[in-house]
Structures are given as structure tokens and as C-alpha cells.
Amino acid sequence: MVHGLVMFSGGLDSVTATHLLRNQGLKIKALHFVLPFYSGLGSSYKEVRRYADALGVPIRIEEEGEEFLDMILDPAFGYGKNANPCMDCRIARLKKAAKIMEEEGASFIATGEVIGQRPMSQRLECLYTVEKKANLQGILLRPLSARLLPPTKVEEQGLVDRERLLAISGRSRKVQLEYAREHGLIHATPAGGCLLTHADPARRFNELVSHNQKISLNDFKLLAWGRHFRLSPLCKIIVSRNESENGILEKIVTAEDYFMFMAEIPGPVAILRGICTDDEISVAASVLVRFSKARNSGTVKVKVFHKENTFIREVESANDQYCQAIRI
Ligand code: SF4
Q1: Quick check: CB of 34 below 6 Å from ligand 1?
Q2: Distance, CA 195 to ligand 1 centroid (Å)?
Q3: Contact 130 CB / ligand 1 (< 6 Å)
Q4: 156 with 270, same domain?
Q5: Which helix (H) or strand (E) holds 315?
Q6: What predicted TM-score, i.e. pTM, was given to this entire model?
Q7: Quick one: DSSP state of residue 126?
């Protein structure tokens, strides 16, 4: 049995929050959520496990699926600067955490949130809204700002010593950094939000939504990887950027997609997705060649898999101007 769960990203704030509680002798379990971009790809999330191990706490990793997609397509609280529905995302994750809390027999959920640290989701009124919407009033503990907030049930009952928690507010991370240094804590470099807060994936997401009535989890997953090009309103091609992405695209490709790679030399791979003409298959192959070592080799062979069929396209590299014009 554990006393509490900590929403754990492995970043400075969640590592500090976990240590503050662990240091009081509480039994803590780290709970890490994986965005659907990365879920189902067989990753072991080594880094985040390493940070939890260093704190001496067990970790539970939860991969998010279709439900995340429903939420991001229609967030009740809207988006942040890019395609990040932070308020809805936090509420949804806390609701899931509440179920896990019951399963684990825990009494509270803690986060590394700090009052006023992020403009949208960590304003004081937003913290209250999130805990109300997640039905976690009195149960959600923010150890880094706890002494500036009303006491939770576990503080009132004496399970958690409020006096040993912090009273941080604002954007500076000075106190957490000093705490981490003092206690020899290791943590991830602050990233400032997930992929959805970044301009490129957000643009791809908006572009996808503008072309597709129905978006699958697999479409969504693909947004995080490769270079994306729009060949027509009905189809797009995604070309891997390095060897590790070759393996990832091989895992993401579906039976309906065209899968392409260089027939005679190692190089990038590509997924051609959607309804496409025979000409568009050749154009896609020429875009793939542009990102291979054979881009200046004249006509080269590209192998294409589609359903039960395998065939070769002989094409020259697409030119840079064209690739730039169709890049998403
Ligand atoms: S930054 Fe991304 S993962 Fe974090 S709350 Fe916002 S949408 Fe969710």
C-alpha cells in the first residue's frame, strides 16, 4: 500500500515534490503519463524510470489512447499558445489518477505544480478549477506551494506534515534548484511543456484537422515524427529524419498505407497515407529520394509496399523548391 501518488514527469518540480514527501517517511508512488504520440511504440521510458529509481520510489507508467484524442479535438477550456489543451489535459489525467489512487489504496495525489509558474494552467484560480473539475478537492496536494494553499485532508489529519512542505510561487525555479542541489537530486532538463506546446507539431495538428473529418490515434501519433508533406487534400507523405525514426515509422505504418524505402542503398523510409493516384505514388517516391544519399544520382529505385503488393518505382529526386512548397 502507498500513502500517495505523485504525478511524475521526471522534471525538477515533480522530482522535488516527490522528495519532499518521501523525506517525511511517506510511501510514495510516481505516476507517469505518456502522450499518445509515444504510446504503443514499445519504449521503456528509461530516463523517467531512472529519476524515480534515484528517489527510491516505484513508478507506474500509463499510456494514453483514444480518450486523449477526443479531448484534444474539442477541449472545453481551449488551447494554450499552440495545440496544447493544458487545462483539459490536467483534468483528464487527474481523473485517471483518482481511479489509480483507489486501486493503489492511496490517500492523496500530489503534483509538482507551483502557483503562478505557468500563465495558463497554474494561475491560482486555474489550480482550483482543475481540482474541482477532477473531483479532488481536499485530496490534491501541491507540495511546492502547499503552505500558500488551504490544507488538504492528509495535512489536517497529520499524515503529511505541512510545515515541511514549501511556499513557492512564481516563475523562478531558484528554490527548487537549490533544494535539488542540496539533496543531490537528478531530474530532466525543464522542457517547458509537451510536444503540443511546440509550433511545428501544432501546425501539423491544425493542418491535419483542416483536411480530415476523422482523425485516428495513429494519425495523431505520426505528427510527432518525420518530415511531413501534403501531396493533395487526400494524401500526405511522411519521410523519416534518421535511423531511429525508420524504426518508429515501421511500427506506425498501417495496412492501408504505402510504405517506401530506397531499394538499393540504406536511407530514409516513408509512409504515404490517404487516397492517392499512381502519379502521386511516384511523386512521393521522388520526395523520399530527395532526403537520401542518392539525391544527385539521377534515376534511382524506390521499393513500395502496399497491402499484398510490392513494386519498384524508378524516379529522380524531387527538387528543393517543390519539397519546400509542399512541406507542412
Ligand atoms: S503541456 Fe502537454 S502534457 Fe502538459 S498539460 Fe499541457 S497539453 Fe498536457
Answers
A1: no
A2: 8
A3: no
A4: no
A5: strand 309-315
A6: 0.89
A7: H
